[in-house]
Amino acid sequence: xxxxxxxxxxxxxxxxxxxxxxxxxxxxxxxxxxxxxxxxxxxxxxxxxxxxxxxxxxxxxxxxxxxxxxxxxxxxxxxxxxxxxxxxxxxxxxxxxxxxxxxxxxxxxxxxxxxxxxxxxxxxxxxxxxxxxxxxxxxxxxxxxxxxxxxxxxxxxxxxxxxxxxxxxxxxxxxxxxxxxxxxxxxxxxxxxxxxxxxxxxxxxxxxxxxxxxxxxxxxxxxxxxxxxxxxxxxxxxxxxxxxxxxxxxxxxxxxxxxxxxxxxxxxxxxxxxxxxxxxxxxxxxxxxxx
Length: 291
Fold this sequence. Notes:
6-stranded antiparallel β-sheet; Ribosomal Protein S5, domain 2; globular; alpha+beta; 2 domains; Alpha-Beta Plaits; single chain; about 290 residues
């Protein structure tokens, strides 16, 4: 049996960062590996199939059956961009198999279109802290000294459900405060003045309405801050809670877990990923035997 296959490493992402709803995100050193291979028939889940259809439409390449397998550390429906890892990995894999007709910015655009928002797709593609709007983005590398403590509950929060609870309108004063905080976060990351992140994660656009899905959200963030964190927020639409710190990461993690009352929750202390999506295995020789 012969094969042509590509394996892509895609980082997890934490998005929104509180007030940066649908436009701010950071890539993390937590990864999924997506392997795309030519096959005799399609062997892929619905997300990969959808990404494949969009890729062939965008490139006008002759469609061919492919397989897509996903392994790694990024849990699904926890607000860490698992859907982006599948879509972006499929797009990159197919692109490499047909000679790379699309550039990275074009692949990002297709992924953001499939996602419906760019805040996970942009950091997953480019790495670092990213401000994104539509197909436009601005990346800022993030120092390794800034650590991300993730409390990942055992339960899922579906993005569709988390969006359904959002109001159509909010008061102007609250919108202004959220916009101001999003600007403070962007300035702190751009200047690498991470101490200025303190007090900047307060949000009125989405997080208060999603707290019902993660009822221990506020007390976990408060416990993390008391233990030394710069602040915290609901990662994406949840259920993961993220705190950022420059010191005492283990103490922050322990305080968050204790406050959650969720002894089975997973705790991860991780760092930013500044590389984004990377092809890590390429086998394009049609005569190469399957191992």
